[in-house]
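Can you please make up a whole protein chain along with its backbone structure tokens because I've never seen that pairing?
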Amino acid sequence: AAEKSRSPKEHADIMVENFKELWKKLDISNDAFIRTTDTEHIRTVQGLMQMLRDRGEIEKRSYSGWYCTPDERFWTEKELVDGNCPDCGRPVEQIHEENYFFLMSKYQERLIKYIEENPSYILPDTRRNEVLGFLRNNVLGDLCISRPKSRLSWGIPLPFDENFVTYVWFDALVNYFSATKYLAPTTLNSQLLTLNSGDWWPADHHLVGKDILTTHAVYWSTMLMALNLPLPKNIFAHGWWTVHGKKMSKSLGNMVDPNALVEKYGVDALRYFLFREVPFGLDGDFSEQALINRINTDLANDLGNLVSRFSAMAEKYFGGAIDIGLIDAGAAREFEEQCAYAHMNVRRKEYWSHLHFSLMLENIWNIIGEANNYIARKEPWKLAKENTDQLKIVMFNIWNALRITALSLYPFMPDTAGKIWIQLVLKSLVDEARQYSPEIFEWDWKPSYEIKVSKAEHLFPRIETKK
């Protein structure tokens, strides 16, 4: 900011628009875009800070330690790497000053017990074990939650000492809470009153990067304990996307621009790749060729061809109108049974609660694969000449497979799912899912109106690559 002659807030105002635009491009919706400069957030931070101070959870002390100015973080001698910051690798300086500390150490045993008694609190299991190992093998210190204004002017002033601002890892963590509008305005007077019955807090899933897991699983958890507030139901630490096995960085010149990928390949193709290629929670190595392979094999060949073949056959053999209301569900049972295992897995609560996105997509593609194999076995082009009743059953089964596919794909690829739904000549996917849920997810569900399949557009054209 200083290099560009801007205040920190002016610089943040410009940078934040880049993130907002990227979320739109990636088709990511949000109820609120929280900024730590928001008035309500500042009031919430100061209210909670005062509450902790009044309860004796915050103390002022003299402190000496190694400080990294770019990261705004203290490090112990043991944590330094060759005398430098272990995060950014830049030099640190020895600082002696007074600061305010949250008495985090009081909650070490309580947090260990909580994690042990709630196995799903931190996921994946490898990350849970990592946090437990950290807590069991180290003496948890108290957390410095302030910086003197003489050294750092940017930040939320402490409500009980105007000479200090709030440290980022207290301020920023509270934004998850303040964004929900969970606290009533009276909180700032003396007590915690809620605006809702718990629908928005605590979070069902709190997603964080693996590099900031300790900050959230330890700092944030103990802060909530000290405030007597509910902890998130789950903290899930995702991995990194690397390039040639190395973390992306500007200095290495291996950054991947998601804006460019969306422009080149489309948002749903990119979303599918990111969800499918690597189990969520693990690191994944990105390559453009791997993305192209997924598009050509899974999206163009498997899914795209199935939709195109079905709509073409529906038009050719029935003029697009398939009277599924007259089809006996029992006559279509054979194909349903072939898809039953994948259909069950797509709806498994454990897959959703543990964020097994890759497994869910794998099972959706098992249904797509069964449908493609079914067409090859039944040869509807022959049935059109020999057995029209059997042809209707075959077409109904493929229609059903695509209906289940569209419903299941919606969280991952909303635009593609919507296009498939429309081509099946159903009404709004979202509206019907709300109106008929949960029965609409069953295999034998039928709409109450006539089906007339529309001609399909090519969902994912093949990408030709140079050999």
Summary: The chain has 16 helices and 13 strands.
